[in-house]
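Suppose you are handed a protein chain with no further information: no name, no annotation, nothing but its sequence. What can you learn? This example shows the usual starting point.
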Amino acid sequence: MTDYKTLIDAETWAFIERTNSYYPPDTIDYTIAQQREIYDRICREFFAGYPDGVAVETSAIATSTHDIPTRIYRSPLQAAVTVLYVHGGGFILGGLDSHDDVCAELCARTGYEVVSVDYRLAPEHLHPAAFDDVMSAFEWAAATPSHQILLCGDSAGGNLCAAVSHATRGHSKTPIGQVLIYPGLGGDRSQGSYITHAEAPMLTTRDLEFYQNIRTGGQDGTGDITQSPLADADFANLPPTVLITAQCDPLSSDGEAYRDRIVAAGGRAYWFEEPGLVHGYLRARHTVGRARASFTRIVDAVAALGQGAWLW
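A reasonable first move is to predict its three-dimensional structure. Written in C-alpha cells, the prediction is:
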C-alpha cells in the first residue's frame, strides 16, 4: 500500500482537497454532461488570468468536414516558433478555456506563439477523431514556412502529441521537439506505476479504464499507434522528447518506457518524474512549490527545444 501521507506534502494535499471539493473522486460515475459541467467549473475556479503583453485571438481551422476551433497566443518577442498545445481531459473533457491560462503563460515565458487546439471529444466523436483533428492542426501550422513547430500537451493531449510525432515521420515538415506532461501512452498496465499508484489521488486505474472505453466506444485498439504510441515497433526518427510525469500517478511509468524506447532507437529523450506530485498538477502551479518548479521545468524544456538546444 502506497503511503501518500509521506509522499505528498501539505501544499499538494491542500490542492487535492480543493480539487475534490469541486471535482469529487467519483465523478466518472456521473453523466458525461455532468462531468463536463464539473470540469469546466473547476477550470474556472483555478483560472489564473493572462500575463501582461500576451495577445489572444480565437479562430478556427477549416477542414473538408468541420472547423477545428483554435486559440492563438502571441507575445511581443515574435519568435519563429509555434507551440501546438493539446489539452488534457481524458478525451472527453476540456477545450479552449480549460487550459487558457496555461497557454498564455507558456507564451509569455517562452516568447513563442502558442496555438491551442480544440479537438473533437468522445463519446460524440470516437477515436480517431481527436487524433485526426490534431493532425489537421499540425498540417495547418506546417503550412507557415517561417515557423518551426513544437508539440506540447498534458495527459490525453500528451498522448495525441506523441501520436502525431509518430505519424509525421517522413513528412516534409516534422516537429522540432515535443514536451509531454504526464501523458498516457498506452503502457503495460500490469506493472510499474499502474500497480504502485493504481489508487492515486486525482487519477486511478479505474478512471483510466473508463476514459479509454469512452474514447474507443469499447473497441479493442491493441496495436493502434494513433491510440497508444507505445504500441509502435519503431521509435527511430522521433523528435527530441522531454517527458515530465508525476510520481503519484498510474501513468508515470509510460514516461519512463517511452524515454527508454526512443533512447534505445538512437534518439534523444529525457524523462523526469516529479516527486510527490499528482496527475493534473498544472492547475497547482501558482499554489504548490513543487508544481511551480515543475512548470518552470516545462517552460525551460519548451524554450530549449524551440531553440534547437538539448540541455539534458
